[in-house]
Specification:
The protein is α+β, with helices and mostly antiparallel strands and about 300 residues long. It has 8 helices and 17 strands. Helix 1 runs parallel beside helix 2 and helix 5 (about 120-125) packs antiparallel against helix 7. The longest helix is centred in the middle third of the chain and has 25 residues, at about 165-185. The chain starts with a strand and ends in an 11-residue tail after the last helix.
């Protein structure tokens, strides 16, 4: 099977590797352009580009595929059977979706039609879902509205998962499913099934401001927020006019505290919430290094009794 692969992050690199390992012919790889990263701000390729280069696969990194006649012609000339898109970070316009005879296959980390859109994993954690899953689907003009090719069995959650680790787990599951799904689509043993639009839910694009803690929320809700937004946008608050990142915390049994109030009890740094309390484990004050909450307390004794987020 002749494939053109579109993807960018490390999760997508795993899917590309699964196709190569299965013996499929990857005619070309498309990924996002190199971006500046690290303290030196040096241009760094995406994990997908790195894997493709190491595997001697031709790689293309256009800034955009919209109204790009040169890339559209190149994609047609590859005469691929199917396109595979995994976390590419760009929307393929309709004229490109119509090129491959088998269509455009995508891995989406939810059990569609639940959690369409850009942040299904984050939203599942925020919603306290007890199980999640992966869908392999065909793309159409809509946002994750195309027909379903296959779905994983429901994956049980412990309630301690963080966003990045759960997303990695789901994409690995999708990558393991991908070769067999493509073969089934090609030989006709898999028939695309339309989604039930009446059961659909839609997620939104994350913004950095989503990570700001509202201390009037419950401790359980803030705990879910911290796990869902790891590593981006993270969770943060303010203290004495400076930003304070809450890098690690856990719900705690404690006497009733006003929302946002910091109290030290039995060597624990506690913060009151709208219901219950959080024990801070690791924090980072703006312009400083990340430290354990107990060490931060020793260096900032006036933190005891402070009110956060004011």
């Amino acid at each position: 099977m002749r494939i053109i692969f579109f993807g960018s992050p490390v999760e997508a690199a795993g899917a590309l590797e699964s196709l190569v390992s299965a013996g499929h012919e990857v005619a070309a790889v498309y990924s996002q352009p190199d971006r500046k990263a690290g303290r030196g701000r040096t241009k760094t390729p995406t994990p997908v580009k790195t894997f493709a280069v190491d595997s001697d696969l031709p790689v293309f990194t256009p800034k955009s595929l919209r109204n790009n006649e040169e890339e559209a012609l190149r994609l047609q000339n590859f005469q691929a059977d199917v396109f595979v898109v995994v976390a590419y970070g760009r929307i393929l316009p309709l004229e490109l979706l119509q090129i491959p005879p088998m269509g455009v296959v995508n891995i989406h980390p939810s059990l569609l039609p639940l959690y369409r859109g850009p942040s299904p994993v984050v939203t599942a954690i925020l919603d306290s879902r007890t199980e999640v899953g992966v869908t392999v689907m065909l793309l159409d003009e809509g946002m994750d509205t195309g027909p379903i090719l296959a779905q994983s069995a429901p994956i049980k959650l412990s309630g301690t998962e963080k966003g990045a680790e759960l997303q990695d787990r789901l994409f690995k599951e999708g990558a393991s499913m991908l070769p067999a799904v493509l073969e089934g689509l090609q030989d006709g043993s898999i028939t695309p099934q339309p989604q039930d639009d009446s059961a659909a839910t839609v997620t939104g694009l994350l913004d950095r401001s989503d990570g700001e803690i509202d201390w009037s929320a419950s401790a359980a809700s803030i705990d879910r927020m911290m796990r869902a937004y790891h590593p981006w946008p993270g969770t943060f608050t303010s203290w004495e006019g400076k930003g304070l990142k809450i890098l690690d915390a856990r719900t705690a049994d404690a006497s009733s505290l006003p929302a946002g109030k910091v109290v030290v009890e039995e060597n624990r740094v506690l913060v009151g919430t709208g219901s219950g309390a959080l024990e801070l484990m690791q924090v980072q004050l703006e312009g400083r290094q990340a430290v354990a909450a107990a060490d931060f307390m020793r260096g900032q004794p006036n933190f005891d009794g402070a009110t956060l987020g004011t």
